[in-house]
Amino acid sequence: MRKIYGYARVSTKEQHLDRQITALLDCGVEERDIVTDKASGASLERPGYQALKHTMLREGDTLVFKSLDRLSRNKEHISQELRYFKEHQVPQFLPTAFFLPLCDIDNLTKSGFTGIVYGKVHDYFPHGLQQALVA
Q1: What 8-state DSSP symbol labels residue 94?
Q2: pTM of this structure
Q3: What is the C-alpha to C-alpha distance for residues 1 and 22, in angstroms, rounded to an integer?
């Protein structure tokens, strides 16, 4: 069965994950399936992210994150990770698309990003992302 995972990250222990977690919950990600890190986005070596990527995510699962900068602050890392997800058939969803429009993501990453970018997922799927993926 396909699962939906969410990922949230802040850079310091003093910062709060609340808004990101709320956005993920609003998209239909279950709280138990949200992985968080309080670590810099300069490196991909974050415990939660690495566990999500290498242990939890399976082919066909979906990864939701609030914006690309939650994945990394480094364009090369973003490109590398999106390429990895494409190769492993893990769609990615951005519930808030103000960060980059879809056409710019392809130009930025050159990775063939195949996820769907939504302005607000709940505008398109009022009953949540989970129901849309099951359908």
Answers
A1: B
A2: 0.71
A3: 24
- Which residues have CB under 8 Å from 79's CB, separation 6+? 108, 109, 110, 111
| Separation between Cα atoms, residue 8 and residue 108, nearest integer Å | 22
Could you tell me if 50 and 7 are in contact, meaning their C-beta atoms sit under 8 angstroms apart?
Answer: no
At which residue do the structure tokens 């939504």 appear? 118
Q: Which residues are catalytic?
A: 11
- Residue for token pair 């056409």: 103
**35-51 pLDDT tens trace:** 999 999 999 999 999 99
Residues whose CB is less than 8 angstroms from the CB of residue 45 and which lie 6 or more positions away in sequence, other chains included: none
Q: Say how far residue 8 (Cα) sits from the centre of its chain.
A: 8
